[in-house]
Write a structure and sequence with these properties.
Chain lengths: 180, 54
């Protein structure tokens, strides 16, 4: 396959390119979150993009995270930029720094899944739910309800995570709004 | 038909989808995304046509 053609692919191939970025040392540890991450545990959840959470190293003496090396690596392979996204295959991919303690924990405890012999790291259902409760948009709350209805999440663990990160109020608010 | 059996059958269908192999679910995401884009484009074109007619 020619190098430029490697980007004309669907979601599984996008994962393969992200794995290659990791083995080439362009990114360190990564995990998929958001709707694509949720699809590993639920029925497919329609989405327009892939959220990849990554551990970034900042430049020495700087607190600013640079994505330039990622864009250069993918640009050299024929991927194009669209706003904050890099289009890998047909999929806009957003690389998000795991910038909060909750996201760092989610990244550290992410689990490896297998997509037809392609390994991929995905947030646990409990962390996807905790992050959704922290983000708190309508679509995030809908996703939490999907997890609960499908019995695809350990709510005890979710409460532990939320307590650990000072987000117990988010759960109480959600519970009052939807579960009482 | 009462509401409860309808809800129950919807839930069962969603459970069935949730238990599909992940590769199959990801292929469905590909298709859902393309469909969403097509619908958004059609809606945008329709609104443009209506504006031109006004």
């Amino acid at each position: 396959m020619r190098q430029r053609d490697s980007c004309k692919v669907a979601i599984k191939e996008a994962i393969q390119i992200i794995n290659r970025m990791q083995s080439d040392g362009v990114i360190e540890r990564y995990a998929i979150g958001g709707a694509v991450g949720a699809t590993f545990y639920l029925e497919p959840v329609a989405t327009l993009d892939i959220d990849i959470f990554v551990e970034f190293q900042t430049e020495p003496g700087s607190r600013i995270v640079s994505l330039e090396h990622i864009f250069k690596y993918l640009g050299d392979r024929g991927c194009r930029m669209e706003g904050d996204y890099v289009v890998i295959g047909n999929w806009p991919v957003q690389f998000l720094p795991a910038g909060s303690p909750l996201l760092q924990e989610a990244l550290a405890t992410a689990v490896e899944k297998d997509v037809e012999d392609t390994p991929v790291r995905v947030f646990t259902p409990e962390h996807i739910v905790a992050i959704a409760l922290e983000t708190g948009r309508a679509k995030d709350k809908a996703r939490v309800l999907q997890f609960i209805e499908a019995n695809a999440v350990d709510l005890g663990r979710v409460r532990e995570i939320l307590t650990r990160h000072g987000l117990s109020g988010n759960w109480q608010q959600f519970e009052q709004q939807f579960l009482e | 038909m009462r509401a409860a059996p309808i809800e129950e059958s919807k839930r069962a269908f969603r459970q069935k989808l949730a238990h599909l192999p992940i590769a199959e679910k990801l292929r469905m995401l590909d298709q859902l995304r393309l469909r969403t884009i097509a619908i958004k484009k059609a809606a945008k074109d329709y609104r443009k046509t209506l504006r031109n007619l006004a």
